[in-house]
Design a protein that fits this description.
- By secondary structure, this protein is mainly α.
- It has a domain of about 60 residues.
- A three-stranded antiparallel beta sheet has the order 2-1-3.
- Helix 1 crosses helix 2.
- The relative contact order is 0.11.
């Protein structure tokens, strides 16, 4: 294999990629790579993966589906983080004693 040609192919492919973070879809490989896994990578890595034959660029429909799934995952993670927050207030002992001493009036 001529390394000059190999790296020229990578440079050519990278220059053809217009997105700043393209999505690639993995191909099945003999060393155990699974087909159909979508990943967001840099243009350089995407070009190398495509030239090596371990991935292909995602179709616009696959990109749309992937991005929607990422937005939903972010929303769920933010919601989980918000529910995990516990708010509490530190009350000095003197204030606590004052609160305990104050009679509570109930309206029935």
């Amino acid at each position: 294999m001529d390394l000059r040609q190999y790296y020229q192919k990578i440079r050519d492919k990278e220059s053809a990629i217009t997105e700043s973070f393209p999505i690639v879809v993995s191909n099945e490989t003999p060393d155990g790579g699974k087909a159909g896994i979508l990943t967001e990578v840099t243009p350089g890595i995407a070009a190398k993966m495509v030239v090596d034959g371990v991935a292909r660029l995602a179709t616009p429909q696959e990109e749309k589906t992937f991005r929607a799934a990422q937005v939903e995952a972010k929303r769920v993670a933010d919601q989980a983080a918000a529910t995990a927050k516990v708010q509490f207030t530190v009350v000095p002992t003197s204030e606590l004693n004052k609160l305990r001493a104050t009679p509570v009036s109930s309206k029935d």
